[in-house]
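Order emerges. As here.
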Amino acid sequence: MPDLPDILCHALPIGIGATIVMDLWALLRQRAFGGPSLDYALVGRWIGHMARGRFRHAPITAAQPVRGERALGWLAHYAIGILFAALLVAVQGIGWVRDPTLLPAVAAGLVSLAAPFLVMQPAFGLGIAASRTPQPGVARRRSLVTHLVFGLGLYLAARAAALLA
């Protein structure tokens, strides 16, 4: 298993690249099909309230705004992408970074789906896997596709990094 600095060195560009791919997908989906995208200011609001000891909201939109929440939310979004890339590199090893394959990356994208389904959506007052939203099935499909795209982004970013190395 590679050491932590080695993992982070590889995970940084892969996680950032994969998160950019995910964000581009969200932008394309929003422009082509309409419908809202996640407002990362709400992620920042959630994190900001954690410092005050509040971890769950019903709903997060009713919580008091936090100074700098948009920037904090976007920073957290990219940090989480890097974290999932680091987990992928830690599990697959540096050999995968040198010669990435699609299946482990897409599997990591699916694993990353646990974050919104089991942590963020319940904490935002939306229930487990968006069960308290007006259209849970639609929300779940959007999350699934978005995280599969993130997995594809992990692969594409790793492939690009391998070519540039």
Summary: The chain has a mean pLDDT of 94.
